[in-house]
Design brief:
By secondary structure, the protein is α/β, with parallel strands linked by helices. It is about 40% helix and about 20% strand. The chain binds S-adenosylmethionine.
Length: about 300
C-alpha cells in the first residue's frame, strides 16, 4: 500500500507538470477529500498507508485537476466566510475577496438595527443579493444574522437569472439551516415588481471584460460564462443594475457592488452619469486593492 507522502509527492509532480501553480496544496486537498479526512490530518500523518479504493479515487481526481478542473469542483466544496459551500458547475466558485462584501453588508445591517429603537411592528430590513450564484453572499449573511439572533429583523432575497445557480443556492441555504429566512427569485437582476424597496442591495455580478475572458486561468473555463462575462468593458451588468436602483433601493438605502480591481474609475463614472447626487466610494480589500463600490441613495 502506498503511503500518504508517496501519493502526495507523485500527485504534486503530476499537477506541477500539468501547470498547476499550487500543485502540492491541490494534491493534499484532493487526497484528504478521497480519504474523507481534513487536510491537516494528511499533513500530520505522512507515513500512513492509503487503501486501494481511496488511492484509485485520488488518481481519478488528479486526472481531472491535471485537465484544468478547479479543485473546488472536484471536491464539491469551497470554504467561504467560515462556511463550507457546496459548489459545482451550476455556479461560480465563491472567491475569498467577496468576503469583504459580506462583512460590509453585516456592518451596515447591524448599524441599521442598533442605531435607533425598533418598536414592535417595525418592518424588517429588506436585503437583496443580486446574482446570488452558489448563494455564498446571501447565505453567509443569513447565517451570521441567525447566530446573532437578528434573523427576524431582516428579509433576504436572493436572485439569479440562472435557474441552475438558484437551485444550488437553495441547497446551500438548506444545508446551512437558513432557507426559512430567505426567498429565491429567478429574475433578470431583480423581479419586475420589486417586493421592496430594499434597504440594502448586494451584488457580485459578472465583471470580466469579454475580450479578456480567454486570458483567465484554464480553471475559469469550467465555470459558467454567465457568471463571468461582463460585456465590452466588464461593467454592462453592473450598469444595468445601477439603472434599476432608483426603483429598487429605499431612500437612505445602500448598494454594495463588487468590481474588478481596475474598474474603480469606470464604475464611479457610471454612477456619476446615471445616479448624480448619490454618494459613492470604493472600499479596498485586505490587500489594498479597490474591490467594493459603496453607493448610497440619499435619504428623502
Ligand atoms: C460573478 S457570479 C457571483 C456569484 C455569487 N454572488 C458569488 O459572489 O460567488 C455572478 C452571478 O450573477 C448571475 N447573473 C449574471 N447576469 C445576471 C442578471 N442579469 N440577473 C441576475 N443574475 C445574473 C450569474 O448567473 C452568476 O450566478
Amino acid at each position: 500500500m502506498a503511503t500518504v507522502e508517496e501519493l502526495l509527492r507523485r500527485g504534486a509532480e503530476q499537477l506541477r507538470a500539468a501547470g498547476s501553480e499550487s500543485a502540492r496544496l491541490d494534491a493534499e486537498l484532493l487526497l484528504a477529500n478521497e480519504i474523507g479526512i481534513d487536510r491537516t490530518a494528511i499533513v500530520a500523518h505522512p507515513t500512513a498507508p492509503v487503501g486501494a479504493g481511496a488511492a484509485a479515487r485520488y488518481e481519478a481526481a488528479l486526472a481531472r485537476r491535471a485537465a484544468g478542473e478547479p479543485v473546488a469542483y472536484i471536491r464539491g466544496i469551497k470554504e467561504f466566510h467560515g462556511l463550507a459551500f457546496a459548489v459545482d458547475d451550476r455556479a461560480l466558485i465563491p472567491r475569498p475577496e467577496t468576503e469583504l462584501l459580506v462583512d460590509l453588508a453585516l456592518d451596515d445591517i447591524v448599524g441599521r438595527l442598533t442605531s435607533a429603537p425598533r418598536p414592535t411592528g417595525t418592518r424588517p430590513l429588506s436585503v437583496a443579493d443580486v446574482g446570488t450564484g452558489s448563494g455564498a453572499i446571501a447565505v453567509s449573511v443569513a447565517v451570521a444574522l441567525r447566530k446573532s439572533g437578528a434573523s427576524a429583523d431582516v428579509r433576504l432575497f436572493a436572485t439569479d437569472v440562472s435557474p441552475d445557480a438558484l437551485e444550488l443556492a437553495r441547497e446551500n441555504a438548506v444545508g446551512h439551516g437558513v432557507a426559512d429566512v430567505m426567498r429565491f427569485v429567478e429574475a433578470d437582476l431583480l423581479p419586475p415588481v420589486i417586493p421592496g424597496p430594499f434597504d440594502l442591495v448586494l451584488a457580485n455580478l459578472p465583471y470580466i471584460p469579454t475580450e479578456t475572458l480567454p486570458e483567465l486561468p484554464v480553471a475559469a473555463s469550467f465555470e459558467p460564462g454567465l457568471a463571468l462575462d461582463g460585456g465590452l468593458d466588464g461593467l454592462d451588468v453592473v450598469r444595468a443594475l445601477l439603472a434599476r436602483l432608483p426603483e429598487a433601493l429605499a431612500p437612505g438605502g445602500l448598494a454594495l457592488l463588487e468590481i474588478g480591481a481596475d474598474q474603480s474609475d469606470a464604475a464611479l463614472a457610471a454612477i456619476a452619469a446615471s445616479l448624480p447626487g448619490w454618494p459613492a466610494r470604493v472600499e479596498p480589500d485586505l490587500t489594498g486593492r479597490p474591490r467594493v463600490v459603496r453607493l448610497e441613495r440619499p435619504a428623502a
